[in-house]
Amino acid sequence: MLFLNFIFLLFFCLFSIILLNRNKFAPKEVFKLSLGKLIKKFRELRRITQKALGDRIHLDDVRIRQYELDIRTPKDDVLENISAALHVNKEYLKEPDYPYTEHDLMRFLFKLDDSIEVNIRPVILNDEDPEYTTTGIYFGSEAILRIRNMLEQWQEMKKKYENNEITKEALQDWKANYPDSLKKDYVPFEESNVKFYRKGISAKIPPDIK
Fold first, then answer.
1. Residues 135, 139, 144, CA angle at the centre, nearest 5°?
2. How far, in Å, CA of 181 to CA of 22, rounded?
């Protein structure tokens, strides 16, 4: 129960980490959100050929094939025509822009469910009051072990920040460079002399202006 709650509370930020590192940490193709693969998936789901899709948006089948193989990327107006022809929300086909929204999270979960089984169930937060529940997310297959390890590493870094052991910049640097930032010889990049900690600011005066 506690583990499910742990997954739920940290999942939204895990969403950001997965987007940044989907090809580094996970097995090949598990987290890759390929536009071409999505176009092909819905074209086949609608039972139309590449030529038929091309005819609907006034392009030839060669161009559609190039899109599906990720050789070329459709421009926004072409993507809008493709989404209309396939009856798919354009935002579902696109990768989300940072900062992410709740709708971005839901679309990501829908697509993730094609690769890793996503299960949803209520989680009781207070054993003495069963009505005090929230909704938990957990993953099927062997992926749960990898994701649990990722979450524990992340939680450790968050605790260091909360305990004023590392700066905000160091925490953001760790997330942006994960999983390379796990290496023992990794040095976080901190250029500024002003250090922003959770509980205050520390300023180091350069020697030349003392």
1. 125
2. 15
